[in-house]
Protein 1
Amino acid sequence: MNSKLSIAALTSAMVLIGGYEGYSTRLYLDPVGIPTACFGATRDISTDQKPEECAALLVRDVVWASRVLDCIDVPLTDNQQTALVSWAYNVGANAACTSTLVRLANAGVPTAHWCAELDRWVYAGGRKLPGLVRRRAEERELCLR
């Protein structure tokens, strides 16, 4: 687990992610056609998952997404950690780490400005998705708390 990730943020991120990713033990295609299962897992999945496999995939993928915290040099609150891990879970830690949001945070730009960058990440496959708009709004709100 990322040493910067607090247990409170880890727990909150798992709840937030689970609420937005949904849950299905059966393989399905996400809105842009990516094979997905469990809580939005896209790696190491099969046609049918057992609930305990889904739980393990969620933990693995949240820990993987928490790598975004290694890219940020400024102190973060638990709420900011939760918001950024949820975002990185959805967009990928590599994309998150190379984002304007991370660059602004590391440059010492006020929190309100870099948290607002979350609102830009509402597109998938070139389409603005209402679910991503809602998710980013909640992540931004958390980031600012």
Protein 2
Amino acid sequence: MESTSADRTSAFFRFEDLRIYHKALDYITFVHTATANIRTDGSDNLAGKFNEAARSIALNIAEGSARNKNQFIYYLKMAKSAVREALVLTSACKSLGYLSEEQNLESRGYLMEMTKMLGALISSLQRTQDSGKDTDEADDDVVGDPRSYDAQNY
């Protein structure tokens, strides 16, 4: 289920304006649906781990957005780590026959796109940081922060 710009028009928190955040929410829905029929046996809860990795992407974006730029970059890198974890879990689920080839390709497509989006946002934040616009004070978490990034691009 793809989010629309109409869903984002009245965002109170900055991260809700980020395209990458909405892509991560879409990925959570995809993973939840794709893993719904995977059996779980306490010792190897592959579906649970996969769902947690998917949630971690969005959670790191949200958590980092309330921090200063250095910390936001750190959390965005943690989101990229969660993307890599989700890729490993995609491969594991595919090799065990839990995901179809179509689901495998769809998961990989989401993950490649999110990696590019996160990389672009990190680069943008580092450029503004390098130009001397950053301080170590915490950013406001709400829309309208003057040091805010251009959310429509990420």
Protein 3
Amino acid sequence: MIEEKKRTFLQIIKHLKTPTHYVIALHTRVVRDGKLRGLKSHDYHAMMQQVLPFCLHNLMQEETHMSLINLNKVFNKIFAKVIDPNTMQVLRKEVVKTISSINKVFPPTMFDVMTHLVIHLVEESDF
């Protein structure tokens, strides 16, 4: 089942159409051994923030997918060029709910102190 989902994910990446110079041509980075190779740090960044939520939509359970989408939204708000101070209080509540929902979905072995640091990123970005 996991291998089938991995193949489906790679097929989506391979046939993904993006604007010119948006992300290095992802379809050329899928190699025959079923891995993505030759991506630069910006490519991974764009993939995590914009491509993955789109690609994983039909490959995961709804609860898992929504947890990852919410985490993605939190990171997009934190790393925006301009942060609206009025929305930071709401973002603090959202990040706690998001981390809690992720704790329910994923196994405890996945979590370490780094997962908890997302909450502190939101607090530190407040000014």
Protein 4
Amino acid sequence: MKFRKASLDSESTVRQWLLEFAKAVRSRDYATGRSLFAEDAVGFGTVANRCECLKDLESRQWRRVWGVTSDFEFEMDQGVVCACGELASVACFWRSYGCRDDGSKFLRRGRCTLLLRIESGKCLAVHSHFSMVPAA
């Protein structure tokens, strides 16, 4: 991941947030996912067009996607982070496997942008936008 204008502290903090969120998605750990987001976070997603708060984001996006997702991870080698003061923005790709109704899996590739607020060495997402990579 390329860091622009990031201190070593913010680089480590952002990487840790990404790893924790990916683990929460893989284990369907909604409590941990919630702990990584601000209550008033706004989210855009592939399933839910716009979510106005964390409760909305969890119910309309996460709960509809995480249950049919496996092996979620951020592709950090293709990401860019810009951190300045108390804010960091992240733009990177992600990949996972989706599950069809018949139980078969298929590769899903997507991209995300995140706006993270850094407070006392911890990140809280205040905005997320996850979407699938457009079909060619």
